[in-house]
C-alpha cells in the first residue's frame, strides 16, 4: 500500500502502511528512489516495516549540518540548513506520517545514503526521535563532522547503527572525499566504544554502485537487529 502527500514543499511517500505497529523508517532521498529501496528490502527478505521516503529536498542545504565551501571547483556550496529541516521533519512531517498510520510504530528509525546518511547521524545527535540509524555511503568526509561526533552525545542512545561504504570510495582523487573510509572507521570506533551496537561493511564499487541495494541492506540490518534484541 502506498500513499503520498506534501508538507513544506517536501514530498512524502509511504510504503507498507498495512504493517500495523511495525517499525517506521524515515528515508531522505536524493531523487525519489524510496519505492525502489522498499522493493529491494522485500527482495532481501527484510522484516515488515513502514517506509516514509522524503524527496524534493535541497540536498546540499537540508542534509548538511553547517556551511562549507564547495569541494569541487565551480561546485555547489553546502549551506548547512539541517537544523531547519530537522525542525520541519520533527514538528510537521513525522506527526503527519503518524496520523496516516493504522497503529503506533514499534519504533522510528532514520536512514539515508550519501549526504542523507550524514543527516541521519547528525539528526540522531540533535533529536531523540530515532532509535536506530541506517546509513550507506554516508558523507563522513564532511569537514568537522568527526570532531562533532567525538564531542557530542546522542540525544537518545541508538539501539543499532549500520555504516557502509564502497571499497573504492577512499580512492577518490578529491582529497576531501578520500578521507571517507578513515572517518567511517573512526566513527565505528567511537560508537562501539560508547557501547552502541554498530556494524560497518565495505561493499564492492564506488559511491554510485548499487545504491538502492546498499540502502536496503542497511535498513534490513537494523530491522533484523531489533528482532534479535526482542
TrEMBL record:
Record-linked Gene3D superfamilies: alpha/beta hydrolase (3.40.50.1820)
Leader peptide range in chain numbering: none
Protein name: Esterase
Organism of provenance: Treponema saccharophilum DSM 2985
One Pfam family recorded for the sequence: Esterase
Source domain of life: Bacteria
InterPro entries named among the record's database cross-references: AB_hydrolase_fold, Esterase-like, Mycobacterial_A85_antigen
Matching PANTHER family: ENTEROCHELIN ESTERASE-RELATED, FERRI-BACILLIBACTIN ESTERASE BESA
Amino acid at each position: 500500500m502506498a500513499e503520498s502527500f506534501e508538507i513544506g514543499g517536501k514530498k512524502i511517500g509511504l510504503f507498507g502502511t498495512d504493517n500495523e505497529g511495525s517499525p517506521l523508517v524515515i528515508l531522505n532521498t536524493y531523487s525519489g528512489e524510496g519505492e525502489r529501496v522498499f522493493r529491494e528490502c522485500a527482495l532481501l527478505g527484510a522484516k515488515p516495516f513502514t517506509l516514509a521516503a522524503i524527496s524534493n529536498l535541497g540536498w546540499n542545504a537540508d542534509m548538511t549540518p553547517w556551511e562549507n565551501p564547495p569541494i569541487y571547483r565551480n561546485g555547489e556550496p553546502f549551506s548547512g540548513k539541517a537544523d531547519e529541516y530537522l525542525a520541519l521533519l520533527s514538528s510537521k512531517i513525522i506527526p503527519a506520517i503518524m496520523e496516516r498510520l493504522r497503529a503506533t510504530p514499534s519504533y522510528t528509525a532514520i536512514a539515508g545514503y550519501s549526504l542523507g546518511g550524514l543527516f541521519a547521524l547528525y539528526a540522531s545527535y540533535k533529536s531523540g526521535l530515532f532509535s536506530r540509524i541506517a546509513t550507506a555511503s554516508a558523507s563522513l568526509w564532511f569537514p568537522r563532522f568527526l570532531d562533532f561526533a567525538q564531542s557530542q552525545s546522542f540525544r537518545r542512545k541508538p539501539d543499532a547503527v549500520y555504516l557502509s561504504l564502497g571499497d573504492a570510495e577512499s580512492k577518490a582523487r578529491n582529497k576531501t572525499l578520500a578521507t571517507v573510509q578513515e572517518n567511517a572507521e573512526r566513527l565505528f570506533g567511537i560508537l562501539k566504544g560508547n557501547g552502541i551496537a554498530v556494524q560497518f561493511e565495505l561493499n564492492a564499487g564506488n559511491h554510485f554502485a548499487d545504491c538502492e541495494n546498499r540502502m536496503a541492506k542497511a535498513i534490513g540490518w537494523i530491522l533484523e537487529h531489533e528482532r534479535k534484541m526482542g
